[in-house]
Amino acid sequence: MLLKIDFESEMPIYEQLRRQIIIGIATGELELGEELPSVRQLGGDIGINLHTVNKTYNILKNEGYLIIDRRKGAMIKDRLPEVNDDYMNILENELDYLIADSKNRGIKKDEFLKLCSGFYDKLKDKEDR
Fold this sequence. Notes:
- There is one protein chain.
- The chain is mainly α.
- The protein folds into two domains: 13-76, Arc Repressor Mutant, subunit A (Orthogonal Bundle); 85-128.
- It contains five helices and two strands.
């Protein structure tokens, strides 16, 4: 998977990296059980601080996406995290913001739903992974 960091973005680098890994898992670019590059390797490959990569990996571990082993490094879990109340609250808050911002910018409901549907359709089902 090719990771692209926008150094001009207001979004923190660790969050850009986190999101790209989650999207990579959902699209199938990253496989369940796949080992990720070491913190040192990934930091060097994309030109970011090792602490940033380490922070990203630890967040993904806490969210249930990764296993971190001192000997093997970071790898994607064989089972992805399940939905819980905390996640539903985060999802609702993010959607509230995204829908409101989109509406303020003139995006109509059908356009918004079409965008959501199009992206959702290009993701793999859990059973396909």
